[in-house]
Design goal:
Structural class: alpha/beta
Order of helices and strands: EHEEHEHEHEEHEEEEHHEEH
Number of helices: 8
Number of strands: 13
Distance between the termini: 30 Å
CATH superfamily: Spore Coat Polysaccharide Biosynthesis Protein SpsA, Chain A
Largest sheet: 9 strands, mixed
Number of domains: 1
CATH topology: Spore Coat Polysaccharide Biosynthesis Protein SpsA, Chain A
CATH class: Alpha Beta
Helix content: 25-40%
Radius of gyration: 17 Å
Length: about 240
């Protein structure tokens, strides 16, 4: 089976919706296109043959009438956390590797394509692969909710967490579906976020590497939309 795409889009996006007409974040437009539609098309252009996205019931109601790409399959789930959103999409994926992104993490199309290509080459079952999966990272720019990565010179993540390091995750990942074997253990530990689950995977010995990406922006506030329009325009 070809590369699968997955999008986490079940949150409400409280900070952004206050300045975006009270729209759920997946339906907020960037350059005239809803973030959910844009992220789906970006994944398809980067090589995904199909995309699964988890959205909440409010987004599902308000998305009626919006044309979605035919390759996109929506799961409507009011999940309790981003980790549970990840597990929801995992239920729909065939065994293999998948390209994962949060709906609000955008980057130039060429950069997403480069990340996907290089991450596939660097992760198993590719020949001579060093990693089980790969996380996109950027240089920390002072983001308050950043997930920091401790990384060896060879690009292997040794820890993920709040301890400040030069690199933070960028909201795009290439992962094996075997990570869902750890779902029960994560629930037993009552983890409440995808970032905590990823940190647990590292602690459990899953070899996650990093690839630095350029031009990645998290859309959390109205100013981020403006910055994204400029960034994407500058890097077409």
């Amino acid at each position: 089976m070809g590369l699968q795409g997955a999008i986490i889009a079940a949150g409400r996006g409280e900070r952004l919706r206050r300045t975006a007409g009270d729209l759920p974040k997946p339906l907020v437009e960037l350059a005239g296109e809803a973030l959910l539609v844009r992220q789906t098309r970006a994944m398809l252009r980067a090589g995904a043959q199909s995309v699964v996205a988890v959205i909440n019931s409010e987004t599902a109601r308000r998305a009626a009438g919006i044309a979605m790409p035919p390759e996109l399959r929506l799961i409507v789930r009011d999940t309790e956390s981003s980790m549970e959103s990840l597990f929801a999409v995992g239920e729909q994926l065939a065994p293999g590797r998948f390209l994962l992104a949060t709906v609000d993490s955008v980057m130039p199309q060429a950069e997403l394509a480069r990340f996907t290509r290089d991450a596939l080459a660097a992760s198993r079952p590719a020949p001579d692969a060093d990693f089980d999966g790969v996380l996109g990272v950027v240089r920390w720019r002072g983001d308050k909710r950043a997930l920091f990565a401790d990384v060896t010179k060879g690009g292997l993540i040794t820890a993920l967490g709040d301890r400040q390091t030069p690199l933070v995750t960028a909201g795009v990942y290439l992962l094996p579906t075997s990570i869902f074997e750890f779902a029960a253990r994560a629930r037993e530990r009552r983890l409440a976020a995808m970032r905590l689950f990823l940190a647990m995977l590292v602690d459990e010995g899953i070899r996650l590497g990093v690839l630095e990406v350029r031009g990645a922006i998290d859309i959390d506030e109205a100013s981020d939309l403006e910055a994204a329009v400029k960034e994407l325009g500058d890097r077409r």
